């Protein structure tokens, strides 16, 4: 539903095609699977869909993020990509909606010389970030990585101290689930569904509040007990998105669809 909430991120012709397809699908489907409560609310709001035919089935992530790697392997990946021993991490396409610039602004407000690693496919928005970095003398603190092989990504996650996802709007937020499974504390943005992905023990800040983000980063890094609690409780919360639970929920939707078809026929 992002193309409806943020139309300026999409081409006009794409918006027309998406709207036609989504409206027809919502009207004609026996049941609808939404990937979050936020998406369910959007389907109801934008297409006037009966909420009783919408089921929520969350998404998960690849099981490799749950595999704990040896410290030597993590050190090897840091050496391969020339990463510092301690770094903040953000993963996702480098685009306006993902809001990675907020993290750079938070670095400016921090009293510490934190290092930030941003992994993702660049768009024109990257230039806005690099302009800010240069203007504020942050070049030595921010590392961009692109075209990272998938097998390296879990190791980059597990080498991070904090995962930061300040996106303005998401349908769900799989990178957050990847971070939770990687035993990394999460800081994310309010305003969409990221609280659903990160759970009650992650930290959430307004997507325009760089000072709040800076304070949250300092709080997590300085409080070892908080770090441990966020990791333990975050890992437990991530069980909501394991394959078995997703399969069970999908099977329930299929059964409802079959029963509906029997009644109709």
In short:
This protein has 265 residues and is an alpha/beta fold. Helices cover 49% and strands 11% of the residues.
Task: Supply the CATH architecture of the largest domain.
Answer: 3-Layer(aba) Sandwich
Number of helices: 12
Q: Per CATH, what is the topology of the largest domain?
A: Rossmann fold
Number of strands: 8
Biggest sheet features: 6 strands, parallel
Biggest sheet, spatial arrangement of strands:
5-4-3-6-7-8
CATH superfamily of the largest domain: Glycogen Phosphorylase B
How much helical structure, as a percent, in the residues?
Answer: 40-55%
Distance between the terminal alpha carbons, to the nearest Å?
32 Å
Q: What integer value in Å does the Rg equal?
A: 20 Å
User: Uncertain regions: pLDDT < 50 for 5+ in a row?
Assistant: none
- Estimated structural class: alpha/beta
Please indicate the count of domains.
Answer: 2
* Helix/strand order, N-terminal first: HHEHEHEHEHEHEHEHEHHH
The overall average pLDDT, rounded, is 96
Strand content: 5-15%
CATH C-level class of the largest domain is Alpha Beta
The backbone outline, from C-alpha atoms, is globular
